[in-house]
Amino acid sequence: MRSLSVFAFSLVAILALPSVSRAEGKTVRILTIGNSFSRNATNHLDDLAKAGGHTLIHRPIVVGGASLELHATRAQKHEADPADKAGLYTNGRSLKEELLAEKWDYVTIQQASIKSHDPATYQPFAKWLADYIAQHAPTAKLLVHQTWAYRVDDPRFTKPSGKPGEPRTQEEMYRGLTNAYRSLAADLGAGLLPVGDAFFLAETDATWGFKPDTTFDPKLGKTPSLPHQTHSLHVGWRWVKPKEGGEAKLTMDGHHANLAGEYLGACVWYEVLFGDSVVGNAYVPEGIASDYARFLQEAAHRAVEKP
Q: What is the pLDDT of residues 159-180, one digit of tens each?
């Protein structure tokens, strides 16, 4: 009877533990064709992989603000003239060379965030890139990286341009980019990295979502004062000192991910690439509270599980 009671106690103890990675260790090789948003979303991916018992081999091709058109055009220039430097990246290599450099498990593509809501900007460049990837990395699975909408108080929404088709709110931008990315993935037969879904889930959560500080007036701001930006997933308001010197200026970056946003994005990528739940992963970046990190892990998991 004693052994039975010990077994029962052990089983209860195991079930009471927080969820942890149970997938067998994997090695994943990935080439990302993107911009600063792909860099944001993968900054913490290697640490999550190590904590989950996996190995990540990652080569990024990053051009700030790059669109699908830019990457396709650069590869086309290389095909037309391999000696043309316009067909190379800053490392002196072409997209073809990067595709041939490893036996990649995955290759990712994405649209520039400013154009992400407009499906008319995706083609014919996305199809051309997909065919080019299939030609030079035939064993790799193509993944479409769904980027995220800008922060709710980004100037794109607080001072809308009025241009036809331009999103006036964060939700409009999210709905537009979601339809565009999901349609693209379906058309190309590609997988999806639903980072944009995870951001929207997290930012609209009743408890953990970001709420702008309506008492803050940027015109009256004095260094180093900033508005409350708790649970923001974007860089937001910050003081930046010019490179040439002088007084710091108050700037707003509602586009790029901050530490929490980068962690959330990496959690999504981790689940898709390794087929392993990120909930309970031991890696949490310094500066993120454990309860908030758990929420971000769960938001990423819900986004990946979303039909």
A: 998 899 999 999 999 999 999 9
Query: How far, in Å, CA of 178 to CA of 304, rounded?
Result: 14
* CB 280 within 8 Å of CB 271: no
The mean pLDDT value for 191-198 works out to 98
- Report domain extents, the chain: 24-206+256-305
> Could you tell me how many residues make up the chain?
307
Q: How many other CB atoms sit within 10 Å of the CB of residue 294?
A: 17
Task: Answer yes or no: are the C-beta atoms of 155 and 212 closer than 8 Å.
Answer: no
Tally of CB atoms within 10 A around 94: 20
Residue 250: CA atoms inside 13 Å, Cβ hemisphere, count? 13
Q: Are 306 and 197 spatial neighbours (Cβ–Cβ below 8 Å)?
A: yes
CATH says 24-206+256-305 is which class?
Answer: alpha beta
The whole-angstrom separation of Cα 74 and Cα 79 is 9
Q: Mean pLDDT in the chain?
A: 93
Helix (H) or strand (E) holding 135: helix 125-136
Cβ atoms 94, 101 nearer than 8 A: no
Helix (H, G, I), strand (E, B) or coil at 250: strand
33 — phi, psi (to 5°)?
Answer: -105, 100
Q: What is the pTM of this model?
A: 0.91
Structure tokens at 86: 């316009």
Measured between its terminal Cα atoms, the distance across the chain in Å is: 47
Cβ-count burial 195-223 (b if 16+ within 10 Å, e if not): bbbbbbbbbeeeebebebeeeeeeeeeee
